[in-house]
Specification:
Bound molecules: (2R)-2,3-dihydroxypropanoic acid
Low-confidence stretches: none
Strand content: 5-15%
Distance between the termini: 24 Å
Largest sheet: 7 strands, parallel
Number of helices: 14
Oligomer: single chain
Helix content: 25-40%
Radius of gyration: 22 Å
Order of helices and strands: EHEHEHEHEHHEHEHEHEHEHEHEHH
Strand order of the largest sheet: 8-7-6-9-10-11-12
Structural class: alpha/beta
């Protein structure tokens, strides 16, 4: 098909060459980042580039909102290769008849592996002790040198019991003999609770009981600062907190204060308010492990996420059912047009 007859799609993120090649079999592909470069999209640059495009392939940023849809009325599909989609205004897209999809499931186990690893690194002070060794400060053995908290047999608190939360609970209960408590708006059915060895508790009880709290709730206005100073005050002074959800779910300034005052023992953070900026106080406290939003970053999983986003884009702009549409209700409306 000649380019002129093909819909144009804008890929806003660096992308696997193979996935770009696959998309080029269907579309005129505008991939300004190619496979490597990064662009800091502003609303203006994104609107200018999206004008005339039929599809967008994005990740956890940039923001896709009513203003962008108004600037790019030709858009018909917005496909994210992330599972979290708080950067996309779903009601606005639905109202404009724009199909939205995300990339769930394919990243569940990889992200749970990372959440568990970050929790363990935090509990066992792995980053802190590694920095100490690299700095040439290891001169002798001591019984309390970087003595941390046990993971096996401890109480794992999971805040947010979706697919990833359940995969973390399973690791804790079955792999490490942990007692698992969780809090979620909706309770799991009794069979799943039994399989995971998990008990639903109120949020306050979760905070008070957990030796290791892992946060996996999606970000929304309702989960903004779900864990702030008041919640941190309920935690044990020996407890750890791990956030692999989204920046903004935890009040990072309050967390930095709690870590500095040893109100809680330690934290592991993969996501930050205003990332890639990190609250400066978090950079100066030793008892926090910081990683740059890489929980889903195994090559195999990132490729699966990209393939799923591409499959959604192809189906969303051609005939077919996108595998993981978030607003499939727009499809019959579009077919009737
Ligand atoms: C997701 O998929 O939401 C991960 O956080 C990567 O952005």
């Amino acid at each position: 098909m000649p380019f002129a007859n093909r819909p144009r799609v804008l890929v806003t993120i660096p992308m696997f060459a193979e996935v770009l090649a696959k998309l080029a079999g269907h579309f005129e592909v505008d991939a300004p980042c190619g496979t490597a470069d990064h662009i800091d999209w502003t609303p203006e640059t994104l609107a200018a580039r999206a004008r005339g495009a039929a599809g967008l392939l994005v990740a956890g940023a940039p923001r896709v909102d009513a203003a962008l849809l108004a600037a790019a009325p030709s858009l018909r599909a917005v496909c994210s290769m992330a599972v979290g989609h708080n950067n996309i205004d779903l009601p606005a897209c639905t109202a404009a008849g724009v199909l939205v999809s995300n990339a769930p499931d394919v990243l569940t186990e990889t992200t749970a592996d990372f959440g568990f690893a970050l929790m363990m690194a935090t509990a066992r002070r792995i980053a802190e002790s590694e920095h100490f060794l690299r700095a040439g400060r290891w001169t002798h053995w001591s019984y309390d040198m970087f003595a941390g908290a046990d993971v096996h047999g401890a109480t794992l608190g999971v805040l947010g019991m979706g697919r990833i939360g359940q995969a973390i609970a399973r690791r804790g209960a079955l792999g490490f003999g942990m007692r698992v408590v969780y809090h979620n708006r909706s309770r799991l059915d009794a069979t799943t609770e039994q399989q995971l060895g998990a008990r639903w508790v109120h949020k306050a009880a979760l905070l008070a009981e957990a030796d290791h709290l892992v946060i996996v709730v999606p970000y929304s206005p309702a989960s903004h600062h779900l864990v702030g100073a008041a919640e941190l005050a309920l935690m044990k002074p020996t407890a750890t907190l791990t956030n692999i959800a989204r920046g903004g779910v935890v009040d990072d300034a309050a967390l930095a204060r709690a870590l500095k005052a040893r109100r809680i023992a330690a934290a592991g953070l993969d996501v930050f308010e205003g990332e890639p900026q990190v609250h400066p106080d978090l950079l100066t406290v030793p008892n926090v492990v910081l990683t740059p939003h890489i929980a889903s970053a195994s090559l195999r999983t990132r490729r699966a996420m990209a393939d799923l986003a591409a499959a959604n884009l192809v189906a969303g702009l051609h005939e077919g059912t996108p595998p993981t549409a978030l607003n499939p209700q727009v499809l019959p409306l579009r077919a009737a047009q």
